[in-house]
Structure formats: C-alpha cells, structure tokens
Specification:
Layout (H helix, E strand, L loop, with lengths): L1 H11 L10 H15 L5 H24 L2
Helix pairs in contact: 1-2
Length: 68
C-alpha cells in the first residue's frame, strides 16, 4: 500500500505524463519509499514493481469484465 500511495501522490503532483513517471517522479518515489520503509530500492526495482502492478490491474479488469 505504501508504494501505491506514493505513486498516487506523484501522479497528483503531475510527475507522470501519460504512462510513465518523469525523472522527478522517480527520484521522489525512491526517496519517499526509503523514508517510509527504511528499504533502499533503485528506479529499476521500483519500475518493475510498477509494471507488475499494472499487469495485475489489467488482468483483474479483464477477469471482472468477463464475469459480468
């Protein structure tokens, strides 16, 4: 939840164009994630998490649409 909350914050701040966070957005995510969790991850690791969450979300939407 922490990662999702931080991503939403960066989106609200305008640090995401259409599908990707800009450099400032990634910098803020890395810094704020470390401050909240004490765990240090780089941009590639957080981007992998972001990409996986997007895939999971798309799959969930597909499953939900198919079940109605």
């Amino acid at each position: 939840m922490i990662f999702c909350d931080l991503c939403l914050r960066e989106i609200e701040l305008g640090n995401r164009s259409t599908t990707h966070f800009n450099k400032e957005g990634w910098t803020n995510l890395i810094k704020n994630f470390y401050e909240k969790t004490g765990r240090e991850y780089d941009r590639v690791q957080l981007k992998n998490k972001w990409d996986q969450l997007k895939k999971d979300w798309k799959l969930w939407k597909e499953l939900k649409r198919g079940s109605t």
